[in-house]
Amino acid sequence: MKKLLLGLMVLAGTSAMATIVGTKHDLSSAAPAGQVKTNTGQVCVFCHTPHNAAAVASQLIPLWNHTTTATATWQMYTNANVAVANLQGTVDASPTGASLACFSCHDGTVAVGAIGNIPNDVASITYTAGGNVNGTGLITGGNTLLGSDLRNDHPIAITYRNDLDTGLVAAASIGAARLFPTNATGNKVQCASCHDVHTNAAGTPFLRASMVGSALCRLCHVK
User: Fold this and answer.
1) pLDDT tens-digit profile of 11-29?
2) pTM of the predicted protein model
3) Exposed (0-12), middle (13-18) or buried (19+): which is 134, by Cβ within 10 Å?
4) How far apart are the C-alpha atoms of 79 and 86, rounded to whole Å?
5) Which of 156, 181, 53, 11 is nearest to 96 (CA)?
6) What are the tens digits of pLDDT across the range 139-166?
7) What does the alpha-carbon distance between residue 138 and residue 24 come to, in Å, rounded to a whole number?
8) Which residues neighbour 72 within 8 Å (Cβ) at sequence distance 6 or greater?
């Protein structure tokens, strides 16, 4: 496979790989001690490939290279899950968009190294178990395993309706948080609204803002 530098330039214009290296999303043979390692020295290939990416209809994120989740039925967070019904947004029947990309690993049904375009330094992906990932590459436990029952997690794949809920900040003013496709015109909350998979700079796990003083929550919620 061609060098990933070209793909990184296309994706971001900055070196996303430089911030993934050494984090829990580093699944390479040089991953930090105590977490899963694979036999490839490449890092970005577990999500992206600069060539021969998934078909356009399967492009959950740009240049998508991972096998999509095997889960068919989901239990989403809805008003039926809480004593006081207060969700104003419409929840999709299953994770969508960037969130579905996350669940390709985090529902525990597909190996972290199940990718379409294998890097050219290995014939196939193998694993050294570590952290919450077993020897076949499946996430098996801890906070990283979300499964398919999302009723105890923050709603995702839900429309952001600050026009109906006065407890929400205006979409264009949520700062470091993200709506999809964009804060100005997009209106869906996804996993990546709070998490940035490419950097751990703000704290674990890959948060877009600090949790000190609930700063992350207050990007969207008026408290």
Assistant:
1) 333 334 347 898 999 999 9
2) 0.86
3) middle
4) 7
5) 156
6) 999 999 999 999 999 999 999 999 999 9
7) 14
8) none
